[in-house]
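Notebook entry, structure prediction.
Reason for the run: the old model in the group folder had no record of what sequence produced it. Starting over properly, with the input documented here first.
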Amino acid sequence: MANGGRRTERLTLSGFGVRFVAATVLVLGTYNPSGYSFAEWVHASWSHGGFGGLGAPHYFVAVVLLIGWAILLRATHNSLGAVGLVLGMALLGTLTWLLYDWGILTGSSVSFYAWIAEVSLGALLAIGLCWSLIWRQLTGQVEVDRVDN
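New structure, fully documented this time:
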């Protein structure tokens, strides 16, 4: 084998889909306009007793969410970089604008566009998770993380 016997992973639609769902679940689980999110749960508990209203389940879920955010943000920043993040946000923002201009997105409420923004953030994080695979398929080049000591 030309790659030294190593199996090379190819990005599939289902592979991207799994990453997209995982990233979007993290984003929407943290906050969403429906009222069913970690932020709303903490707010409701806080309003009934401040720190005393928060218990071990709140802190456990907070740590799980922080771990998820740390992993996804680091992976996305490492693979896309600052310029890639800005370009990705610009792409998703102008896509939203284009779909609105074409009449495909017709919502007018803040809540509607909050959902769009959150799903877009999930998409950006998923792209960040997949970028090295996309890059290898487009260019044939393998990305390697550089470690500075």
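Summary: DSSP finds four helices and no strands in the chain.
The old model has been moved to the deprecated folder.
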